[in-house]
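Teaching assistant's notes for section 4

Start the section by putting this record on the projector. Ask students to predict, before seeing the second block, whether DNA polymerase eta will look compact or extended. Collect guesses on the board.
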Amino acid sequence: EGVSRADCVKEWFLNPDSDHRDKLLACGAIIVAESRLEVLRETGFICSAGIAHNKMLAKLASGMNKPAQQTVVPSSSVKDLLQTLPIMKMKQLGGKLGSSLQSDLGVKIVGDLLQFSVEKLQEHYGINTGAWLWNIARGICGEEVKSRHLPLSHGAGKSFRGPETLKSLSSVHKWLCELSAELSERLCCDLEQNKRIAHTLTLHASAYKSDDFESVRNFPSKSCPLRYGTGKLQEDALNLFNAALREYVGIMSKKDHEWAITGLSLSASKIVAIPSGMNPIMKYFHDQSQSRAPPDKSNEL
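Reveal the predicted structure now:
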């Protein structure tokens, strides 16, 4: 009363009796708030966040208050947070392990784990898993925060349901051109940012024949060497689809409405880094296009 919030915060920060770890969390909360605001400015998207002393608690907290909020978990709140948390809400306990805890040990909430010694848990679930269960029940986690690995593949796809199913070659070709353009953009971005190239293009589709609804899983996937450039991707995607369709319905049976496409996707795989010391990248792709197909000047990378 009569004191500004800023002065209260300053007094708390300067107080030598204040918990040092909580001060670190407060600093983290400020950084995260600024980052979330920057995301909103740059993209227009809102996001939520969790701030805690370890990765497990932070991830748990990030989903507690949404949308566009952040949750801080100081050490003094960990016990209360976990005490009544359903076991299936914990990461890696939503599957078989969580079901086993409920059926074998009667564990319904994380707080129930506190009654078991580490030896008891290890007896049931092995040394490593037992120790891990004992730790997470107390909010202890030593897992490091790691940078995300670069994707092993890139893809673009779309599903077509009900009246949206594709029943003509022209409609399929239209969407393959759209997906090829999307995939090409992702590949060029990866090339520019990470200096990586993809070598294989694969087409996947789901379909059914009008007289055989059990055929939905039988549409074959087709692959070919990947050529960079939107035009080349579009051309190769169309060729892959036509080859797969011939195999699916037969060479003499390509009439409209004898088949319907419910899903289309293109993926680029076998992505590798360009070796250091290699010739200029434009020359590399020029050489590739010379060996695979006639040059397409309008779609060169």
